[in-house]
Amino acid sequence: MFNKVLIANRGEIAVRILRACRELGIQTVAVFSEADRQALHVRYADEAYLLGPAPSRESYLRGDKIIEIARKCGAKAIHPGYGFLAERADFAQACLDAGLAFIGPKPSSIAAMGDKAVARSTVAKAGVAVVPGTEGEGSLRDEELLTMAPKIGFPLLVKATAGGGGKGMREVRNLEEMPALLHSARREAEASFGDGNVYLEKLVEGARHIEFQILADTHGNVIHLGERECSLQRRHQKLLEESPSPFISDDEDMRQRMGNVAVRSAQAVGYVNAGTIEFLVDKDRNFYFLEMNTRLQVEHPVTEMVTGVDIVKEQIRIARGRQMRYTQENIHLNGWAIDCRINAEDPYNNFIPSTGRITHSLLPTGPGVRVDTGVYPGFEISPYYDSLISKLIVWGETRAEAILRMRRALEEYKIVGVRTNIPFHQNLMDSHRFMGGQFDTRFVEERFSMEAAEEGKSTHPEIAAIIATLVAHEQTQRAAHIIQRGERDTSNWKWMSRWERMQR
Amino acid sequence: MKYVTSIHEREYIIEIVDERHIILDGTPYDVDFDSVSGQPVYSLLLDGQSYESYVYPSDEGWQVLLHGTLYPTLVEDEREKRLRAAAGGNIAEQGEFRLRAPMPGLIVAVLVNEDQPVEKGDVLVILESMKMQNELKAPRAGMVTRMRVKGGDSVEQKQTLLSVV
Question: Would the pTM count as exceeding 0.90?
Answer without folding.
Answer: no
